Amino acid sequence: MTRFVRKETPVQRMTRNFLDDESATTAIEYALLGVFIAIAIISGVSSLGAQLNQAYVNIANGI
Question: What does the alpha-carbon distance between residue 31 and residue 24 come to, in Å, rounded to a whole number?
Answer without folding.
Answer: 10
